[in-house]
Design a protein that fits this description.
5-stranded parallel beta sheet; about 550 residues; binds 3-acetylpyridine adenine dinucleotide; alpha/beta; FAD/NAD(P)-binding domain
C-alpha cells in the first residue's frame, strides 16, 4: 500500500546489525563480508530489480568496461577467479551482469537483498544508536551500522536545457537506459556528450542510425582500446596466475595490473618518445598513461603525450575542419578520466555522422523536432544524453542522510565533501561510505578499491564487536587533516588542470568545486588505512 510503513525485521527474527545500500560490486561484497565472515544479520537495499549497480543501469550501446577483464573482478577468492572465464579483453555490459549474478548466486547473496527498494532517508537515532532507513515504498529498516555502497557514478545528469519537455521524439540518458534497448535503425539521432560514454556509444549508434549528430562541448582525447577475444592461452594464464594478478592490482597506483614505466619523458629523445607512444597506441587501453612515469605530474611531459594523440586524431579524421574540432583539446591528457575507444575518431569519416561544436556554437534550446543551436536547427528523432553524472556526492546527497542532532549530510558537505579516509564523516556515527569522496575510488580500477574498503569496514566492525565498542566516528580534526591530504595529493598532479572535470564537480551547475577522489595512489592509500587500523583506529572516536 503506497505510503504504508512496514517494519522489516531480520528473517531470523533478530535485529538487523547492518544495512548496505546498493547491490553492485561494492554492495555485494560488503554483504558477503559482513554476513558470511562476521556472521552479522545484514540486508542490502537495492533500487534496481537485480544486482549490478552501475552495470544494471548503464546498458547503452557499446557499454563496455575500460578495465581489462582479468583485473575487473573480485580477487578475494582465487577459486572463483579460476572458475569464471571472461571472453574478451574488455568485458561488455551483459557479460559483467552475468558475472555479478554468478557471484551473487555462488554466495547465495540474493536472499538478503531487497530489490526495487530505493532508500529515501537514513536518520541516526543517537539514544538507540541505530540508523533508521526509509524507502520510497514506505518501508522502514533499522540497523546499527549503515554502509553506503551506492557507486560513484549513479546519479544521472540530464542537462537542464530549455524545451526538453517539448521534444516530440524520444530521449534517453545513457545511465538510465531502457532494458529493452533502443532501435536506431533509420533514425536521426543526436548524441550530447563526448566523455567515456559518448565515445563508446558513438560508433555503435552510427552503425544503424540514418544519421548521427554528435554535439561536443569539450573535445576529448581517446586511445584505441584494441578489444579482442581472449585466447585459450590467456584464459589459462589467468587461471594459473590468479594470485599474481591479485598481487599486481594491489601494488599499482591505479589498481590495474600494468607495470608503470620508470622512464622519465625527457630522458628519451623525441624519436624514442614517438616510438614509445606508437607502441603504446598499438597496445591500446588505459596503460597508455603509464608510458612515462612523469606523465601526470609534469605538464611539459604530458604535452608530448597530448600532442601525439592530437596528431593521431588529425591523421585518422579525413575532414580537416572536423579533425580540428576533435583535436582542439583544452586540458592535459588524462586530467579528465581518459576514454578508450573502438573506432571513435574513424566514425567521423562516415557519411552519416557529423560533429557540432557546441562550445563555439552553444545549444540554445530543444525544439519539438530537434536541437537548436545558435547557428541552426538539427532535426532529430532521438536524443541521447551521454552527459555524465552528479558524481561521488550525488548518490549520497539525494538520500536524506542525517547524523547526530539531525545534522543533514547536505549541510555537512555544503562546501564540498569532507570526511576521513573517504570512509566516515564526523557527526555520522557507524556510517561507512564505500568508495566515498576522499578515497581513490574513481581513480582506481573500481573492484580493487571496493575490495579494500569492504574488507577494512568489515575488519573495523569485527574490532568493535570484539572490544565492546558501540560507536565509531571520524574525529573532526582527523577529517580536516585528511581533506588537506586529499587536496595536496591532487595538487601534486595535473588532474586539477581540467577545470571542467567531474572529478571537481564542475559538470554540475552550483556544485562546490572540490577535487573529490584521493589522488595519492591506491597502494599508498591502502597502507594509510592499514596503519590507521593498526594504531587502534587513530583519528576515529570509539565509544561504548
Ligand atoms: O560522463 P562525462 P560519461 N551540453 O561527465 C558533456 C565512467 N565510465 O558518462 O566536458 C553539452 O565524462 C560533457 O561536456 P564537458 C568513467 O569514469 C566508465 O561519459 O562537461 N554537453 C562531457 O563531454 C567516466 O569518466 C566506463 O564540457 C554536455 C559529457 O557530456 C564516467 O563514467 C565507461 C552538457 C559527459 O562526460 C563518466 O563518463 C563509461 C551540456 N549541457 C563511463 N552536460 C567504463 O569503462 C554535459 N555535457 C568502466
Amino acid at each position: 500500500m503506497p505510503g504504508a510503513t512496514t517494519e522489516i525485521s531480520d528473517t531470523r527474527g533478530g535485529d538487523i546489525d547492518a544495512l548496505v545500500i546498493g547491490a553492485g560490486f561494492a554492495g555485494l561484497y560488503q554483504l558477503l563480508c559482513l554476513r558470511d565472515r562476521l556472521g552479522l544479520s545484514v540486508k542490502a537495499l537495492e533500487a534496481g530489480a537485480g544486482v549490478g549497480g552501475t552495470w544494471y543501469w548503464n546498458r547503452y550501446p557499446g557499454a563496455r568496461c575500460d578495465s581489462e577483464s582479468h583485473a575487473y573482478c573480485y580477487t578475494f577468492s582465487e577459486d572463483m577467479m579460476r572458475e569464471w572465464e571472461w571472453s574478451e579483453r574488455y568485458p561488455e555490459q551483459p557479460e559483467i551482469m552475468r558475472y555479478l549474478n554468478f557471484v551473487a548466486d555462488r554466495f547465495d547473496l540474493k536472499r538478503d537483498i531487497h530489490f526495487n527498494t530505493r532508500v529515501t532517508s537514513a536518520h541516526y537515532d543517537e539514544a538507540a544508536n541505530r540508523w533508521n532507513v526509509r524507502t520510497e515504498a514506505g518501508e522502514h529498516f533499522s540497523a546499527k551500522y549503515l554502509i553506503t555502497a551506492v557507486g560513484c557514478l549513479s546519479t544521472a545528469n540530464v542537462p537542464d536545457i530549455a524545451g526538453l519537455e517539448s521534444f516530440q521524439g524520444d530521449w534517453y540518458h545513457t545511465g538510465q537506459w531502457p532494458h529493452e534497448g533502443v532501435d536506431f535503425t533509420g533514425k536521426r539521432v543526436g548524441l550530447v556528450g563526448t566523455g567515456s560514454t559518448g565515445i563508446q556509444a558513438t560508433p555503435v549508434i552510427a552503425a544503424t542510425a540514418a544519421h548521427l549528430t554528435v554535439f561536443q562541448r569539450t573535445a576529448n582525447y581517446s586511445v584505441p582500446a584494441r578489444n579482442v577475444p581472449l585466447t585459450p592461452e590467456f584464459k589459462q594464464y589467468v587461471k594459473d596466475n590468479a594470485a599474481e594478478i591479485r598481487r599486481a592490482t594491489r601494488s599499482t597506483p591505479n589498481g590495474h595490473p600494468f607495470v608503470n614505466s620508470e622512464r622519465m619523458t625527457f630522458e628519451s629523445s623525441p624519436e624514442e618518445r614517438h616510438a614509445l607512444y606508437e607502441a603504446a597506441w598499438e597496445t591500446g587501453g588505459l596503460q597508455f598513461r603509464t608510458t612515462f612515469q612523469d606523465m601526470m605530474v609534469n605538464k611539459a611531459a604530458n604535452d608530448t603525450a597530448a600532442d601525439f594523440i592530437r596528431g593521431k586524431i588529425r591523421q585518422i579524421v579525413n575532414d580537416p575542419a572536423t579533425a580540428q574540432k576533435l583535436s582542439d583539446i583544452d586540458h592535459p591528457y588524462a586530467a579528465k578520466r581518459p576514454p578508450i575507444d573502438t573506432n571513435y575518431f574513424e566514425t567521423f569519416n562516415r557519411d552519416n555522422v557529423s560533429l557540432v561544436d557546441v562550445r563555439a556554437v552553444p545549444i540554445e534550446c530543444i525544439a519539438p523536432d530537434g536541437i537548436r543551436t545558435q547557428d541552426g536547427d538539427y532535426p532529430l528523432d532521438i536524443i541521447v544524453f551521454a552527459t555524465g553524472f552528479d558524481a561521488m556526492t550525488g548518490p549520497m546527497l539525494r538520500m536524506d542522510i542525517r547524523g547526530r542532532d539531525g545534522l543533514p549530510l547536505a549541510k555537512a558537505w555544503e562546501s564540498g565533501p569532507r570526511n576521513y579516509l573517504g570512509l566516515q564523516v564526523a557527526g555520522f556515527p557507524n556510517l561507512f561510505t564505500v568508495t566515498g569522496p576522499g578515497s581513490p575510488s574513481v581513480l582506481c580500477n573500481m573492484p580493487v578499491a571496493i575490495e579494500q574498503h569492504a574488507e577494512w569496514i568489515a575488519d573495523c566492525i569485527a574490532h568493535m564487536r570484539d572490544n565492546g565498542i558501540e560507536r565509531i566516528e571520524a574525529r573532526p580534526e582527523a577529517m580536516d587533516a585528511w581533506v588537506e591530504q586529499v587536496n595536496a595529493a591532487a595538487d601534486a598532479t595535473l588532474l586539477p588542470l581540467a577545470t571542467h572535470s567531474w572529478y571537481l564537480g564542475a559538470n554540475i551547475p552550483g556544485k562546490p568545486r572540490v577535487f573529490m577522489p584521493y589522488a595519492g595512489g591506491m597502494a599508498r592509500y591502502r597502507e594509510i588505512c592499514a596503519d590507521v587500523a593498526a594504531k587502534n583506529y587513530a583519528g576515529f572516536a570509539l565509544s561504548d
